[in-house]
Hints:
By secondary structure, this protein is α/β, with parallel strands linked by helices.
Amino acid sequence: MHPHLPSNSEEMVNTQISIRDINAPRVIQVMKMIPRDSFVLEKHRALAFSDQALPIGENQTISQPYVVAFMTQALDLKSSSKVLELGTGSGYQTAILASIAKSVYTIEVIRTLIDRAQIVLSALNFSNIHFKCSDGRLGWQEQAPFDRIIVTAASEDIPPPLLNQLADNGKMIIPIGRQHWSQDLVLISKQGKRILKEKLLPVRFVPLIRVTPQKHKKC
Ligand code: SAH
C-alpha cells in the first residue's frame, strides 16, 4: 500500500535516524528494538514508522521518531539514571527512556492517554516505569532528585519545581517558546548553583496544558 514507507523500527532507524545526526550506539539500538506501531492508533498503523508525528487522540500526538531519538541522545542517559518525564502521551518516548535508564517516572495530565500507555508498556514487559496522572509542571517531589528530566510538551518557561527537582550534575531537555508553531529545544545542565542553557534544535510541540485545581478533572 505504501511502498516507500518503512515497515519496521529497524528500517525506520536506517532511513530516518542514523542518516541524520544521531550516532549514540545505545539510542540507535533501542530505537530499532521498540515497536513504534504498538503506540499508534489502529487507523494510523500504516504510517507507524513514517518520519512524522501522528495524532493519538485528545488533540495530542506521538512525536516524530527523529525528535524522540534527538532528545534521548541529548539527555546522555546512563544505565543508573533516574528520569522524570512530563507528557507520557502514547508512552513511546517512555519506552525508549526506560530501555536505557534505571527508572522512569512519567506524568501525564490526560487520564485516557496514561491508561492506554500503561497497558501498552506492561504488555512490552516494562517494570521500571512509574505513572502519575497530574499536572507535570509541579514535578514529582516525593521522588526527587532526578538525574534527567525530559518535557515533551512546549512550555513558555522552565517550570521552577522542575529545576529544583533536578539533581546536581543533572540534565533537562525541554521545548521552550511562546508560539504554538515553533519552539527551541533547550538543554539545561545544573552544576551546583550554575544553570547552563543551550538551544539545540527548532521544534514544534503541542503546548503544556496549564491545569488549575478546579479544572483538574482529566485525571
Ligand atoms: N512524548 C509523547 C507525547 C507527546 S504530546 C509521545 O511521543 O507520545 C504531549 C503530551 O503532554 C500529551 O499527551 C499531553 O496530554 C501531555 N501534557 C500536556 N500538558 C501536560 C501537563 N501539564 N502535565 C503533564 N502532561 C501534560
